[in-house]
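[Discussion] Sanity-checking designs against the backbone

I'm trying to build intuition for which residues belong where. Below is a structure token string of 213 positions. I'd appreciate it if someone posts a full sequence so I can compare it with mine line by line.
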């Protein structure tokens, strides 16, 4: 059986173009951090390192299940669709639109059954067959966002402030307080293959319960 995140985890990825509250559980990721403008080559290279590992992990898991049918019962899924790219963003500058001051951690989620050992095995293969300058900076870790406000943003990344304004108003109306200026973005389509007006990005930030306004 194949795990497809669009089909099996709709509560996390099939959201509407209006703010809502969600509690995000602990999840596993491969991730890499960086600074600067996401339009620069440095960012693209980091994304490339992530995807090299993500597909190596997936293919090794699929091959193991195919070659060892007696062990398949330990896995709920024998194959899976690679999860979308995500990013955690903040800014070291005075303006949230100053892209050169961005600080980020980009990541690709891993299924719960992927382990540190499976990551390390895939890493060794990629390191030998497809060496990459940023590969050594990729780590395997877990994150738990907990209580969050989120919404689906359609269109240019530069137009995101309008969606964040809606999220801020929703949070205030529902007695929720944003914890920090850091936020998460989940990119549901490939920006290289669609027109900017059709970009689909989940915007999400952590909140806590405050006083009812």
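Best answer:
Here's mine. Compare freely.
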């Amino acid at each position: 059986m194949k795990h497809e995140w669009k089909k099996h985890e709709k509560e996390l990825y099939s959201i509407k173009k209006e703010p809502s509250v969600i509690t995000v559980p602990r999840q596993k990721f491969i991730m890499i951090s960086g600074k600067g403008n996401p339009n620069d080559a440095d960012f693209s290279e980091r994304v490339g390192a992530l995807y090299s590992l993500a597909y190596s992990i997936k293919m090794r898991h699929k091959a193991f299940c195919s070659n060892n049918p007696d062990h398949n019962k330990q896995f709920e899924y024998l194959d899976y669709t690679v999860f979308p790219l995500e990013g955690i963003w903040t800014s070291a500058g005075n303006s949230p639109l100053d892209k050169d001051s961005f600080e980020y951690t980009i990541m690709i989620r891993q299924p719960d059954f992927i382990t540190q050992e499976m990551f390390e095995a895939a890493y060794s293969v990629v390191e030998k067959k497809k060496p990459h300058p940023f590969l050594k900076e990729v780590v395997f870790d877990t994150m738990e966002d907990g209580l969050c406000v989120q919404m689906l943003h359609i269109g240019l990344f530069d137009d995101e402030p309008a969606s964040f304004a809606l999220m801020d108003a929703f949070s205030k109306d529902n007695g929720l307080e944003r914890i920090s200026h850091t936020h998460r973005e989940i990119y549901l389509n490939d920006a290289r293959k669609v027109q900017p007006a059709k970009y689909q990005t989940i915007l999400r930030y952590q909140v806590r319960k405050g006083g009812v306004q």
